[in-house]
């Protein structure tokens, strides 16, 4: 059994490797994180993704985010989606949210905002997240999202207008199981 101190040392070493700038070391660390990573390392991955130009590293990070299985990761990922520092990689972050299958109903407002103000690519990914959580939302939440979308659609370009109006239809047509 590893002591808490050993776990902290391992995480510190992983963070140091991620920050090393050495692509070989970073990729080896990402492979290790896939198996032995903790949710607490996610902010480091977000930072690395945001500053990354190496496609292999981007792909590795996206893959880790897509495969997250611990629900506590949903909060960190949602905060990263909303963080303006990660605007350039927002589509990757949002895509991970629907691909990893965690519950994002609590964060539906974040994804609504992405549809209204994010890039078209990020908006498409956010559409999928909202579509998947619609059944987990209370009626009031669904109504709030629809109202926000109906207000925001007025300021959107034609491409996004079509996307937003389709999402409004999806949410409004939701029928809870009786």
Mean pLDDT: 94
User: Into which percent range does the helicity of residues fall?
Assistant: over 70%
Shape: elongated
Taken as a percent bin, the fraction of beta residues is under 5%
Structural class: mainly alpha
Separation of the first and last Cα atoms: 49 Å
Count every beta strand, where a strand is a DSSP E run of 2 or more residues.
0
Features:
178 residues, mainly alpha, 0% strand, elongated
What's this entry about, in short?
The protein contains ten helices and no strands.
Commentary on this structure:
Helix content is 70%, strand content 0%. It is mainly α and 178 residues long. 29% of the residues are buried. It starts with a helix and ends in a 6-residue tail after the last helix. The chain is built from 10 helices and no strands.
Element layout with pairings:
Layout: H1 4-18, H2 23-36, H3 42-51, H4 55-66, H5 72-82, H6 90-99, H7 108-117, H8 120-133, H9 139-152, H10 158-172
Helix pairs in contact: 2-4, 3-4, 4-6, 5-6, 5-7, 6-8, 7-8, 7-9, 8-10, 9-10
